[in-house]
Amino acid sequence: MAFVKDPCGIVCVLITYMTVLHADYVVTHWIILQTMPNSLWAPFHVVAFNTIVFLLAMAHLKAVLLDPGTVPLPQIRIDFSDLHSEKNYGHEREEWTMCTRCETYRPPRAHHCRICKRCIRRMDHHCPWINNCVGERNQKYFLQFLLYVCALALYSIFLIVISWVYPCEDCHTDVSQAQTRMMHSVLLLLESVLFGLFVIAIMVDQMHAILYDETAVEAVQQKGPYRSHRPKMALLAEVCGRGHPMLWMLPCTSLNRKHHDVPLLSHDV
């Protein structure tokens, strides 16, 4: 577990949970309980909506707290005089590079994050909304978080529209309550549309990075796909896990530990 002490990231994490809790409050209290008091759909929507909230929070916490793939620091300081030596310890052949900030060799596709102040394996980018880097070990949970936010936004929009198109005729509420419900509904609708479009854009970018095997850092560096001939499903399974695809969207399932627990430093330094 890790937690980055970045003020911007901490504020973004708090905004994320405040927004999700506000959506849960408005949908449960002002839309479902106020417009569907005598309907069997009310308990169904309460359970379904809060299940998505639970899965969202679980995926987000894992993306925030899980180590994204930090390259361990060497126990002794590296002598940089061997950088241009003939031997070079075979790192050039295996595309290993050297980080002068961490003072260590780093494996292919690892990059240094100036916010985390460490090198991260298969680093895509540093996301303030999870206050962490999106890397080899937590990209799956970041993708799940985006999917559940999108689902929550669409579900909120659906329930708001239903409450407007099919108003409750048996609900006897005063004008002030009706106005308050309308104010909360409009605010949540705008919030859901804005966050939904924002999250969809990020999710499409993440899927492109996974399926074409090119992280955001590599795209900026114009390196091209890392393994252009690898099957798309194999690339997706590399991120989501080796289990059944039906389990890929469950944040309670873990990645293939045998694959991710390979020692990062297998060379003498």
UniProtKB/TrEMBL annotation:
It is a multi-pass membrane protein. The keyword Transferase applies. It holds the Pfam family DHHC. InterPro entries: Palmitoyltrfase_DHHC, PFA4/ZDH16/20/ERF2-like. Its EC number is 2.3.1.225. GO terms for molecular function: protein-cysteine S-palmitoyltransferase activity. The keyword Transmembrane helix applies. It is found in: Membrane. The chain crosses the membrane at residues 39-59, 145-166, 186-204. It comes from the Eukaryota. Residues 94-222 form the Palmitoyltransferase DHHC domain. Belongs to the DHHC palmitoyltransferase family. The DHHC domain is required for palmitoyltransferase activity. This is Palmitoyltransferase.
